[in-house]
């Protein structure tokens, strides 16, 4: 409770500063008595079994000492601490240090560590080798050759390449204003052409009532030719269709007078009704009808035979 139980003597007032400063004491108390030597007294617990180097007694893992802790160096940015302990069975001292590189403690002096570390090689595993330290001894000639090669590569390949890249970069970045204005000018021209094309397209779409989403083809020699071929093809198809329609009409017209085919034959003899042209057939029908109206007696009498077929009995 050293840090909490504070006794304020009657002659103390706040102008004296802190109580510790007034009493001439450190906040860590007696543990800081060797702080001027860089030593702090801490409680240290043995991380492994040792034999004391002075009395040769075995000291078990986990025995605690008031050790003098001192920073003795760095491994990269990690401090290396040493712990100096006095043997509780004799007056001898031993020293243990941290080993940040291998994340362990090592006995430096005054004792022997009992080797109980797990050894993978002894137990059928694979040893972890230090890849950093034991490199092959350097062959000075090979090293020289390597250095010369590297130098040659630098002067013959790397430097010219770098210079070329640099000059290209300078060329591109020498005058950003001019480059930018050139690009923008070009962009404006392209945009004007595009807008003109768009107007023409819109006009065509408006004229023919085409949907606005329809994209029209670029007008050039190939598309013009294609469009012309398409137009001719459609024309031919239309002509064919019309002629078909006309032929069908003709067949209809000539097939109607078959009722009176015998009579018709009297008027237009020696004509095959399928081969004569429709105007002739029409003319024949009109003449026949006229004749029938003017002379009702010339009308042939018709009756049906027992099969339902009409037969002409006589004139
Ligand atoms: Zn001892």
From TrEMBL:
Coiled coil regions, renumbered to chain: 217-244
Q: Which UniProt keywords apply?
A: Coiled coil
The reply to whether ATP-binding figures as a keyword in the UniProt entry is no
Q: Which Pfam families match?
A: Saf4_Yju2
Task: Show which residues constitute the signal peptide.
Answer: none
Region ranges (Disordered): 290-315
One annotated GO biological process: mRNA splicing, via spliceosome
Q: Where is the composition biased (Basic and acidic residues)?
A: 299-309
Q: Which GO terms describe its cellular component?
A: post-mRNA release spliceosomal complex; U2-type spliceosomal complex
Q: Which family does the similarity line name?
A: Belongs to the CWC16 family.
- Can you say what this protein is called? DUF572-domain-containing protein
